[in-house]
Amino acid sequence: MPEGGGTFFRMPDFLQIWPKGTPLGGGQPAPNPVYPQAPTSTPRGEARTHTAAHPLSGHRLVAVHGNRVRYPSRAACDAYTVVGITTHAAEQGAEVEVAGTGEIVTEPSWNLVPDQPVYAGESGRLTQTPPTSGWLRIVGVAQSTISLVVSLQVPIHL
Question: What's the average model confidence in pLDDT over 138-144?
Fold first, then answer.
């Protein structure tokens, strides 16, 4: 064992991004590497209002495009622009509230398996079946058969 009880592996200096004692990201969300001007999720438990790029259904995943939100495509670039789940339907150009990380979204027509992850599906649909192509992103965890806790995770390219 190394002197002082440390580990055998020392992180190379070029990989040490944050100074010791600094909260990851300095307490701020990390910038979006693909779409830097995209808004990040709001602080836990806060919904954010956006303008709909096209008619949107309620309880669907949306991504920011310019200054409006739309359903994300399966293209890799959209994986990083997802901002949350709509809480209601909206017409094109109308304001829509989007639930971000930490919020609980409920929809009586859902039939979710509790305590299981919920993934981003086609055209903003939520699914508990992981995709097999494009990108995989967990967007929440089912709290019950009709509700989920939004938790936007880092996307994984398949």
Answer: 93
- The better pLDDT of the pair 41, 61 is held by 61
pTM (2 decimals)? 0.69
Among 34, 97, 99, smallest CA distance to 65 is for: 34
Other CB atoms within 10 Å distance of the CB of residue 156:
12
Per-residue DSSP letter, 77: H
d(CA 67, CA 77): 16
Q: What is the pLDDT of residues 45-101, one digit of tens each?
A: 556 889 999 999 999 999 988 889 999 877 666 778 889 999 999 999 999 999 988
Residue 45, sorted as left (phi over 0), alpha (psi -120 to 50) or beta, turns out to be left
Question: Which of 157, 156, 154 has the alpha carbon at shortest distance from 40?
Answer: 154
**Residue of 39, 47, 150, 152 whose CA lies nearest to 102:** 150
Q: Which residues pair with 117 in a beta bridge?
A: 141
Identity of the residue numbered 85: I
What tokens were used for 19?
């100074």
What average pLDDT does range 115-120 have in this prediction?
93
- The two structure tokens encoding residue 152: 């936007």
Q: 10 Å Cβ neighbour count for 125?
A: 13
